[in-house]
Design a protein that fits this description.
By secondary structure, the protein is an alpha+beta fold. The chain has a single domain, classed as Hypothetical protein YunC (Hypothetical protein Ta1206 fold). Helix content is about 25%, strand content about 35%. It is globular.
Length: about 100
């Protein structure tokens, strides 16, 4: 099952996406500029093999809900996110606010 719901921030509206798969749930919150995601996100791939795409993204591990994804510190971020002032360790919520 796929669930998509809007989340309002002062800066704009993001989309929260939950994809329920067998034995796995994928979580993402996205703006038009970038996104944060659960541990399934391969930041290394984005930084190395897909660097030319300059993806603005961050990853939080151990999260099971959208709320946890927003509250958790990002374990890793892309090089593009770092350049945009989104460091590893920032909360998912703060990262999304900077992605508007």
């Amino acid at each position: 099952m796929i669930e998509v719901q809007p989340i309002s921030f002062e800066e704009g509206t993001a989309l929260a996406i939950t994809v329920r798969l067998p034995k796995t749930t994928l979580l993402a919150v996205t703006t038009e500029k970038g996104y944060i995601m659960c541990g399934a996100l391969d930041v290394g791939l984005l930084n190395q093999r897909l660097a030319e795409r300059e993806v603005l993204a961050g990853r939080a591990v151990g999260v099971k809900t959208i709320q946890e994804l927003l509250d958790a510190p990002l374990e890793s971020v892309t090089t593009t996110a770092e350049k945009a002032g989104i460091p590893a360790g920032i909360s998912g919520r703060e990262a999304i606010r900077k992605m508007f």
